[in-house]
Structures are given as C-alpha cells and as structure tokens.
Write a structure and sequence with these properties.
- With about 110 residues, this protein is mainly α.
- Helix content is about 70%, strand content about 0%.
- α1 packs antiparallel against α2 (about 50-85).
- The chain starts with a helix and ends with a helix.
Length: about 110
C-alpha cells in the first residue's frame, strides 16, 4: 500500500467529521428537549415557541441529510483508496459497521412488500 500517511490522515478526518455531525445532532436534540421542558415548567401554552421548535427540528433534519452525505462520501473514499492502492486502515480505530448481507428476516419483509 502506498501513501499510507495520506490515507490514514483522511480516514481520521472522516471519522472526526462523522462524530462531529453526530455530536451536533445530539446537541440539537438536547436543545429541543430543553426548550420543551422550559415551556412546560413555565406553564406556557403549546403554541408558544412552536415556530422556533419547527425551525430547530428542520435544522436537525438538515443535519441528518449532511450525515447521510458524509457517510456516502466515506464509502466513496474507501473505494477510491482501494482502487488506487492507498492504505488507510488503522489499528484500534475500527467501529462496527452494518452487515451488508441481508438476513432471512429482511428477505421475508421484502417478499411481503
């Protein structure tokens, strides 16, 4: 494998970006929760702050779109690295991934659909 340093640097940054997006989503969820709790504690009607909550939740949806794009880009970068012989796998940095093989349960669901 060539360019191992470059590949590892990119792999680390992909992981950092993915975790940063997850953390941003967590913080937005906390904001929604805190805002709703604050409304209830203050004994305000449900309509109070509705627009603000809708905007915040829309932002969360946009973060989910960003997350999906980064995850797709991650897969694309792995393919590019493999296609060009660029080393990128790191010891101790691995995270569990979704099993790409369909299970029998999923096959039954597909048939039912």
């Amino acid at each position: 494998m060539r360019n191992m340093q470059v590949g590892v640097r990119v792999a680390r940054q992909v992981r950092t970006a993915e975790h940063a997006i997850d953390q941003a989503m967590i913080e937005v969820c906390r904001l929604v929760q805190t805002s709703l709790e604050g409304r209830v504690e203050s004994r305000l009607a449900a309509e109070v702050g509705q627009s603000a909550i809708e905007h915040i939740i829309a932002g969360l949806g946009q973060l989910a779109t960003v997350r999906a794009s980064v995850v797709a880009g991650h897969a694309d970068l792995a393919t590019v690295a493999d296609d060009h012989g660029i080393g990128w796998r790191m010891d101790g940095m691995g995270e569990s991934k979704t099993d790409p093989k369909p299970t029998a349960h999923l096959d039954v669901v597909k048939l039912a659909a």
